[in-house]
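Reply to thread "Modeling small-molecule complexes from scratch"

Following up on the discussion above, here's a worked example others can learn from. I took a protein sequence and the SMILES for NAP and predicted the complex. Inputs first:
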Amino acid sequence: MELRNKTAIITGAGKGIGKAIAESLAREGVNLGLLARTAADLDELKNTLSEQHGVQVFTAAADVSNSQEARAAVSELAASLGHVDILINNAGTASFGKLAEMDPEQWEQIIRVNLMGAYYVTHELLPAMIEQGSGDIINIASTAGERGFATGSAYCASKFALLGMTEALMQEVRKSNIRVTALNPSTVNTPLAVNAGLPIGDEDRMLQPEDVAELVLAGLKLPSRVVLKTAGIWTNNPQ
Ligand SMILES: NC(=O)c1ccc[n+]([C@@H]2O[C@H](COP(=O)([O-])OP(=O)(O)OC[C@H]3O[C@@H](n4cnc5c(N)ncnc54)[C@H](OP(=O)(O)O)[C@@H]3O)[C@@H](O)[C@H]2O)c1
């Protein structure tokens, strides 16, 4: 499917995977609404993408874990874009610790960002997609949503739940010509992975944010009758 002149909102677009998805979509001629908390990241990306690819880029600094803030930001971006064809729920946070030892506030915050954030943004934008009778929603989940591991109770719970929401919503809206997809990367070379102390090892052999962005593009370009329900993304070059 041709992506030129389509519109997309990407959460967590300032760094890592979200930034790589923004770059890939801009290269295809997609007009963008970018959201993250750090305005400076978004402004810099906006300048680069509009200059290099001639696309329209709008930005909104907001915290997706805050319902009011997230809803106001995405509805402003949607109004600037005119309509929204593609939503990428990518904003996410990760930290790890034993359940008994992790601060309850930190545990809850992971759920608020990774699950509730995706819900708030989707809930705000979905009615217009249903009304227009088309749309793509891609949720960036994780292999941590497929199998639990020690110290991952909050992160795994958030991603298992995001996968559940994805599959249920996919069943709900496919008759409205809306595709809902989850992508499950294993460790990707981003600030999140480095800051969370995930094993990085040889950078050349691990997944890069651009690899996830490639799969996003591939999913979006499938004929509209085809929905990629869930796709795991692994390095083919393990250390
Ligand atoms: N890297 C991995 O190994 C890996 C593997 C599997 C899945 N994932 C998932 O991929 C997604 C992107 O991760 P990444 O590795 O690219 O992370 P990253 O490098 O830390 O980038 C995350 C982006 O999300 C934004 N963000 C974080 N919290 C936010 C909030 N509360 N509200 C709005 N924006 C927020 C950050 O900007 P601000 O801080 O300025 O808000 C940043 O732009 C996450 O959902 C993550 O769980 C990552």
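What I'd highlight from this example: The first helix runs from residue 16 to 27. The chain has one domain: 7-231. Questions welcome below.
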